[in-house]
Amino acid sequence: MEPLDHFPGTHIKIKEQSDLYFGGTAYLGLQTNPSFQKCYKENIDRYGTHYGASRNANVQIAIYAEAEQKLKEITASQAAITLSSGYLAGQILAAFFSDSDYTLFYTRESHSALYQKKIPAYASFGELRLALEKHLSTKESTPVIFMDTLENPEASYPEFDALRDLPLSECILVADDSHGFGVMGKEGTGAYPILTQFKPKDLLVCFSMGKAIGIPAGAVAGSKRMINQLAKSEIYGAASPASPAGLATFVQSLVLIWEKNQQLKGLTEYFLALLEQKHVFRFIPGQPAFAYKDLGLTEYLRRQNVLVTHFHYPNEQSEPTSRIVLTAAHSKAEISHLAQLINQYFHGH
Fold first, then answer.
1. In the predicted model, is pLDDT for residue 313 greater than 70?
2. Closest CA to 274 of 338, 230, 180, 184
3. Where would I find the H helices in 99-253?
4. Three-class SS of residue 347?
5. What is the C-alpha separation between 158 and 284, in angstroms, rounded?
6. pLDDT digits 0-9 by tens, 102-111
7. What is the DSSP code (8-state) at residue 113?
8. Do residues 157 and 224 both lie within one domain?
9. Do the beta carbons of residue 214 and residue 28 sit within 8 Å?
10. pLDDT digit string, tens, across residues 113-152
11. In 48-100, where does DSSP find H-type helix?
């Protein structure tokens, strides 16, 4: 497929043909939303296209503290900091915990953003529990558990039953909620309010603000003590911050974001009601993404001018990722058409 010269919204124009697109991560459809774009453009006029100074510089821009206050309120955390991307939000945590005071434990499907060096992940939460218990009985360093809130099926969002048997009161829990924030939880709050109920020694949740919210930024939510320590780190002080125009647009668009969150929930329920072969897909209730392994379905949809996510992720050696992604920008008619095609495929066309 040739590179595009436009953003892939609900349609992708390839040469003279327009294909329906159900891929990517623009969950709330804000990147192409006229009201959101208008707000963003106005904020670029006010704040410029980029702000490259350190967050610790003598000149401070007020929107950072305002946006972080909103993130704190949305996640129900004690504090939050923003960074230029979700990947950097993961990296600042991986770097912070990479000294001898901590020992790192990774669950399956942890994103590469959470690694400073390659450490084997535990195949199951049962194996992780045994390793943690052994470590706590012999070592003095604090265990830090890294996990993804949605990508590991064993974690079992939103109940997170797999966490119940872990000695969390003696462990720091780091959770990547990049595909959850803005989409999952009550009104898009993500996983933080759920995970805090497990009472870990400390809880830090990092996430991208690009996937649901549509701005180039990332964030970390946690306790005041931990967030203050992260704000003193070299990465935080040396890296360029998120664009203030993007953060201002986030703050000013909270009502629109909530509306799109509710709209997406309705569209996801509508799709599931139409879908006959639900068991073919791996999905979490409420999540607008439906993974599957049937290459024939991808090829069939492609012949019907419907394009879905299908590529090797995160590298060429990985198994192909195939998934259908719904967004708040899709219409009911488009989703109905998709469901009809899927049903036809499993009925033998």
1. no
2. 338
3. 125-138, 192-195, 224-230, 234-238, 244-252
4. coil
5. 9
6. 999 999 999 9
7. G
8. yes
9. yes
10. 999 998 999 999 999 999 999 999 998 899 999 999 999 9
11. 63-75, 86-96
